[in-house]
Structure formats: structure tokens, C-alpha cells
Amino acid sequence: MNKTLLLSTHSRFLLQLFEPIIPALSTQFRIVIVLIVGKNIQVPTRMSEMLLTWKNEGVVEQFFFTPDPRETFKFHMAIWKLIPQLKKYTFDLWLATSDTLPSDRYMSDYVLPSSSIRIVIWPYITYLFWQHSAFSK
User: Fold this and answer.
1) Over the Cα atoms of the chain, what is R_g?
2) Which residues on adjacent β-strands are paired with residue 117?
3) CB atoms near residue 97 (< 10 Å)
4) What is the distance between the alpha carbons of residues 43 and 120, in angstroms, rounded to a whole number?
5) Cβ neighbour number for residue 74 with a 10 Å cutoff
6) CA distance 110 to 103
7) How many beta carbons lie within 10 A of that of residue 61, not counting itself?
8) Residue 14: which of 34, 30, 28 has the closest Cα?
9) pTM value > 0.85
10) Phi then psi for 27, rounded to 5 degrees?
11) What whole-number distance in Å separates Cα of residue 122 and Cα of residue 119?
């Protein structure tokens, strides 16, 4: 049986970062996706269709949308309702774009077993190599 991967990220990063690699990851992992949707960000129709297609084709096992964390009460209630559904899985790997936001802390503290491998991909612009070009050589 394949290992289980939890991907949690903001909806804007799914298409930008993860869409190209998810089909390849699905050969090795059962994938569950948790997307955080910003209050003023509409989920593109293409993304919803892609997720449904992936689920129907077995590329992803399940996906969930959560409200914007800035809608504090609504967000926390949605996460508390989601936790029991996520705990049905034993995640071997957590792939995320942060590990410090409230949504990430919920995943880390309440969903993931201690044996999970945790990988954080930082998609934001960084000026580390611009200011310290010697690092990049």
C-alpha cells in the first residue's frame, strides 16, 4: 500500500507550485489536500475542475477547502470540524508552504503523527542570494 501524503497550502500555490508534481507523487502516495482560501480570493474554476478530475481519476484521495484564517471564528470552527476527517489517515509525509501559521499548527499538533516527515517549501520571494551573491556561486 502507498504511503499517505498531506499537502496543505494556500489555494494560490496549488496551481503555481504543486500542480506539476502531484500526478507524479500520486504514484508513490495517497494524497490528501487541504487548501486555505483567502477571503478576497476566488478559487479559479480550473482549480476546482482539476481537483475533481484528480479525485475521480484516483490522483488524489480527498481534498478540502478551509476559510481564510483572518475570519477567525469561522476558520477555527472549520478546522475543528476537519481534524476528525484528517485523523482517519495516518500521514507519512506532510508537504506545506509554512509551518508557523495557525492552519499549519493545527495540522502539526492535531493531525500528523510524530513519525511524519515534514517538508516546508518556501514559495515566497527571497533576496538572500541577491544580497549575498557569494552563496549562490
Assistant:
1) 16
2) 93
3) 21
4) 23
5) 14
6) 11
7) 17
8) 34
9) no
10) -75, -20
11) 10
Query: What does the block give as the cell for 71?
Result: 475570519
Nearest to 81 by CA among 34, 122, 44, 136: 34
Could you give the angle at the alpha carbon of 12 between the alpha carbons of 7 and 14, nearest 5°? 35
Residue with cell 476559510: 67
* 82 CB-near residues (< 8 Å, 6+ apart): 34, 64, 66
Query: β-pairing, 117-120 with 29-36?
Result: unpaired
Output the CA–CA distances (angstroms, integers) from residue 2 to 26, 34, 85, 93, 129, in the order listed: 9, 19, 19, 11, 38
Question: What is the residue whose three cell numbers read 484564517?
Answer: 69
Provide the residue-wise pLDDT of the chain in tens; the chain has 137 residues: 689 999 998 877 787 778 888 999 999 999 999 988 876 666 667 788 889 999 999 999 999 988 887 788 888 999 999 999 999 999 999 998 888 888 888 999 999 999 999 998 876 665 556 666 666 55
Distance (Å, rounded) from C-alpha 117 to C-alpha 16? 23
